[in-house]
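In the design runs reported in the main text, the only information available to the sequence generator was the tokenized backbone. The following block is the verbatim input for one such run; it is reproduced so that readers can re-run the procedure and compare outputs position by position.
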């Protein structure tokens, strides 16, 4: 039986009905696209491999309990699972340990005396942080495109492919993201330094 001739849906149905080898064909078939998407997002092959494995563990578990009902949209479904795991990864790694001053340790004794250049740098960092916070307020589809473009440096064709929309839709979402971001920057009175 040559599994390569089967469609994704036929392989999924066969897997659900007990032919476990069919899942290997599905994973092999879509490995480069899914792994490539993850690598572009996390920029680290080891982390990407871990997320790839976690993605397909979730896929297998969801298939086993009958939680897949997106007939004909298997790859976008898998990419959504991968995308959510990537977001989880970044949430875990971005948790920063807070340092509090106490009698033995005063943070202000650890800070250097500022000159104007350091002050300018701090203002620029604060502005950047405020803009990043505003990005989180954008509608999800605009936020996703903006992050893929600016933080992951993806081109619009790759963005369109990974979000399962046309290039025009991806471009439109980016345009609206920038328009909305500019409005929010004005509303919050943030001065953007060039």
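Verbatim output:
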């Amino acid at each position: 039986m040559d599994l390569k001739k089967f469609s994704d849906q036929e392989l999924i149905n066969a897997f659900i009905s007990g032919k476990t080898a069919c899942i290997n064909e599905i994973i092999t078939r879509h490995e480069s696209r899914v792994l490539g998407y993850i690598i572009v997002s996390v920029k680290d092959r080891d982390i990407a491999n871990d997320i790839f494995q976690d993605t397909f563990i979730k896929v297998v578990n969801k298939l086993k309990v009958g939680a897949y009902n997106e007939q004909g949209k298997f790859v976008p479904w898998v990419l959504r699972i991968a995308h959510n795991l990537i977001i989880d990864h970044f949430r875990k790694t971005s948790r920063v340990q807070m340092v509090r001053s106490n009698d033995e340790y005063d943070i202000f004794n650890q800070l250097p005396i500022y000159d104007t250049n350091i002050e300018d740098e701090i203002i620029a960092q604060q502005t950047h942080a405020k803009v990043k916070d505003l990005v989180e307020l954008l509608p999800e589809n605009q936020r996703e495109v903006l992050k893929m473009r600016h933080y992951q440096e993806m081109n619009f064709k790759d963005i369109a492919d990974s979000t399962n929309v046309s290039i025009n839709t991806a471009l439109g979402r980016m345009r609206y993201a920038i328009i909305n971001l500019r409005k929010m920057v004005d509303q919050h009175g943030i001065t953007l330094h060039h």
